[in-house]
Design a protein that fits this description.
Layout: H1 12-17, E1 23-26, E2 42-46, E3 51-58, E4 61-66, E5 78-81, E6 86-87, E7 93-98, E8 105-107, E9 111-118, E10 123-131
Parallel strand pairs: 6-8
Antiparallel strand pairs: 1-2, 1-4, 2-3, 3-9, 4-5, 4-8, 5-7, 7-10, 9-10
Length: about 130
């Protein structure tokens, strides 16, 4: 008997179908680092639950976006970069995966950013408002 391979592919509707009340930043670039205290890094929804935004300080380092900030387990759903160690270019849209991997967005320039996540387009934009001096 020949072995068969079954492949499952998550599509953007997987993220769209779950209405998260907020998202949270986590990683070395996040204000709280790898801790689960999202009080300084919560992205709030606007326009239904399509867009989530946050403005605040990011450090240099890697970043993921946790979808369920009430779940403090590492296995909880998150939004991640399409490729490992994806360098953020401020102002350019970055594609993202849902629940798929640990790929991080890398913040090279610490400073004040506005982050806008578009769940329908599965994109995130990091806008650098002011770099640290």
């Amino acid at each position: 008997m020949q072995a068969q391979t079954v492949t499952f592919r998550l599509v953007r509707s997987d993220a769209e179908e779950t209405a998260y009340p907020s998202l949270g930043l986590i990683g070395g670039a996040a204000p709280q680092g790898w801790g689960f205290d999202y009080s300084q890094s919560t992205l709030l929804p606007e326009d239904g639950n399509r867009y989530y935004t946050w403005t605040g300080h990011l450090n240099e380092g890697g970043l993921n976006i946790m979808c369920d900030i009430s779940d403090t387990a590492w296995g909880s759903p998150r939004l991640t970069a399409l490729e490992p160690d994806t360098q953020v270019v401020p102002g350019e849209a970055c594609g993202m995966h849902y629940k798929q991997d640990d790929n991080a967005w890398l913040i090279a320039t610490p400073g004040r950013y506005t982050i806008r996540v578009d769940i329908h387009a599965m994109q995130v934009i990091f806008t650098l408002e002011q770099a640290d001096e």
